[in-house]
């Protein structure tokens, strides 16, 4: 499978996950596209620089376009490249951003750390450790104050 085929499958897969599995529907929201343009700008800069200096190399038969025959740097535009990087990198970057944001919203809707809690991490506050953190006296990190210090 070529990098181009993987990139297209990743985009299709993450859009389907966004719309039908997680049901976050980010691709239908204006805010997502604004955020993605910001991410895309920095992706073009960082990945373009790293590809331009030769830190990343791609096999000609796995991407659209070819490297120069003389072994020089890739073209900035053309030959399937956008700011030195193969356009397939843009597909992968889009998929990565969409999936990360969709999972963030999905877990947020399910109450994963909906309310931030101050103080020591919960695993050090006594519930999951043998001794409570100094000064915590087994206090409930959610603030209810009705926890037993020995649990």
Structural summary, described in words:
With 151 residues, the chain is mostly helical. It has 3 helices and 3 strands; from the N terminus they run H-H-E-E-E-H. It has 2 domains: 3-109, no CATH class; 119-144, no CATH class. Helices cover 43% and strands 4% of the residues. Strands 1-2-3 form a 3-stranded antiparallel sheet. It is elongated and about 60 Å long. 16% of the residues are buried. The model has no long low-confidence stretch (mean pLDDT 79).
N-to-C series of helices and strands: HHEEEH
Specify the number of helices. 3
> What's the number of domains?
2
Number of strands: 3
Gyration radius from CA atoms, angstroms: 23 Å
Let me know the average pLDDT: 79
Helix amount: 40-55%
Features:
mainly alpha, three-stranded antiparallel sheet
What would you say about this model in short?
This protein is mainly alpha-helical and 151 residues long.
Write the layout of secondary structure elements.
Elements: H1 3-21, H2 30-52, E1 77-78, E2 81-82, E3 85-86, H3 87-109
Antiparallel strand pairs: 1-2, 2-3
Helix pairs in contact: 1-3, 2-3
């Amino acid at each position: 499978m070529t990098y181009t085929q993987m990139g297209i499958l990743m985009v299709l897969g993450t859009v389907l996950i966004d719309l039908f599995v997680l049901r976050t529907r980010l691709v239908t929201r204006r805010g997502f596209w604004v955020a993605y343009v910001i991410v895309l700008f920095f992706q073009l800069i960082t990945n373009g620089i790293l590809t331009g200096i030769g830190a990343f190399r791609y096999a000609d038969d796995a991407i659209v376009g070819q490297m120069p025959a003389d072994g020089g740097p890739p073209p900035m535009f053309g030959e399937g490249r956008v700011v030195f990087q193969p356009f397939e990198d843009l597909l992968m970057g889009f998929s990565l951003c969409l999936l990360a944001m969709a999972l963030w919203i999905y877990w947020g809707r399910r109450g994963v750390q909906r309310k931030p809690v101050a103080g020591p991490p919960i695993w050090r506050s006594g519930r999951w450790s043998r001794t409570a953190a100094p000064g915590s006296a087994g206090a409930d990190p959610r603030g209810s104050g009705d926890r037993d210090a020995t649990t």
